[in-house]
Design a protein that fits this description.
With about 270 residues, the chain is mostly helical. The protein has one domain. The chain starts with 8 loop residues before the first helix and ends in a 6-residue tail after the last helix.
Length: about 270
C-alpha cells in the first residue's frame, strides 16, 4: 500500500506576518492618543477658538473696514482673515503639546510613557504631529466661517499650505519645549502670556507693518511670527510686506533650530526622569 505523500511543510505553513517596528507602532499609538485627547473636548479646543476669531473679525472689521487700506484692491476685512487664521493655527498648535505634557507631568501618568521603548524621535513626532492637526483643524474652521464675511481670493495657494504647516509645526514644537520646562501651570501660562501672545499679536495680524514708523518696522522684522503670517497673506492676495522666499528662509531656519532644541531636550530626558 502506497504511503500518502507528506505535504510540504514550507508550503503548508501560513506566510509569517512582517513584524511591525515597536517604535513605529508606539509613535502611531501616542499620536492617536494625542488626537483623541483634544477631539473628545472639541467644543472647547476647536469650536471656542473659532468663535473667538469670529468675534475679532466682527469687531475690528466693523470698526476699521472703511478707514484702513493695506493692499491695493483689498478691503481691511479681507486682509484681516488670513491673519486670524494663522493666529488661530499658531496659538492652538502651541496649546496642544504644552497642555498635554504639563498635565501628564502634574497628574503623574507620564511614567506610563517613560517605561515604553519609545525614543525621542517618537515622542517628538507624536506630540508635534498632533499639535499640527489641532492647529490646522482650528485654522480651517476659522477660514470656513470667516470667508463668508468678505471676498478672499486664492492667488498662490501653495504658500498658504507651506506657511500654515511650518507655523503649526514650529508652535507645536515650541509648546513641547514649554511643557518640558514648566513644572506647574503658572509657569506655562507665563510662557504663553509673555512670549507666545506678544509675538503673535505683534506679528501683523491686525495691521501691515508698512503702516508703522521705520523703527517699529525694523523691530517687527525681528519677530519670526511675522514671516508666517505675511507668507500666508502672500498666498491669498499675491502681495506681501516682504518676499515670500525671505519669509520661507526665516520660517525654515527658526523651525529647524526649535526642533533641534526640542529633540535634544527629549533625548536627554530633561525634566522627565527627575
Amino acid at each position: 500500500m502506497a504511503l500518502a505523500a507528506r505535504p510540504d511543510s514550507a508550503a503548508a505553513a501560513p506566510a509569517a506576518a512582517t513584524p511591525r517596528s515597536p517604535t513605529l507602532a508606539g509613535t502611531g499609538t501616542l499620536f492617536r492618543k494625542e488626537i483623541l485627547r483634544f477631539w473628545k473636548v472639541a467644543f472647547q479646543t476647536v469650536a471656542a477658538p473659532v468663535l473667538t476669531a469670529v468675534l475679532y473679525l466682527l469687531i475690528f472689521g466693523h470698526v476699521l473696514e472703511d478707514r484702513v487700506q493695506v493692499f491695493e484692491g483689498v478691503g481691511y476685512t479681507s486682509f484681516l482673515i488670513p491673519g486670524l487664521v494663522m493666529m488661530s493655527v499658531l496659538q492652538n498648535a502651541f496649546a496642544n503639546s504644552s497642555s498635554s505634557l504639563i498635565q501628564s507631568k502634574i497628574t503623574g501618568n507620564l511614567v506610563f510613557l517613560l517605561v515604553t521603548p519609545l525614543n525621542h524621535w517618537a515622542w517628538y513626532l507624536a506630540y508635534a504631529g498632533a499639535s499640527m492637526v489641532r492647529g490646522l483643524t482650528v485654522g480651517t474652521g476659522v477660514l470656513l466661517v470667516t470667508v463668508w464675511f468678505a471676498p478672499l481670493p486664492l492667488v498662490q495657494p501653495w504658500w498658504i499650505v507651506v506657511f500654515a504647516a511650518l507655523g503649526a509645526a514650529m508652535l507645536g514644537t515650541l509648546g513641547l519645549i514649554a511643557g518640558l520646562w514648566a513644572d506647574k501651570f503658572d509657569q506655562l501660562a507665563a510662557f504663553q502670556n509673555f512670549i507666545v501672545m506678544p509675538l503673535t499679536f505683534l506679528s501683523g495680524v491686525f495691521y501691515s507693518v508698512h503702516s508703522l514708523p521705520a523703527v517699529w518696522q525694523a523691530v517687527s522684522h525681528l519677530n519670526p511670527f511675522f514671516y508666517r503670517i505675511d507668507g500666508v497673506r502672500r498666498g491669498f492676495f499675491g502681495a506681501s510686506d516682504v518676499s515670500p522666499w525671505l519669509s520661507l528662509a526665516v520660517v525654515g531656519t527658526s523651525f529647524a533650530l526649535v526642533a533641534a532644541l526640542a529633540l535634544r531636550l527629549l533625548a536627554s530626558g530633561y525634566k522627565l526622569r527627575a
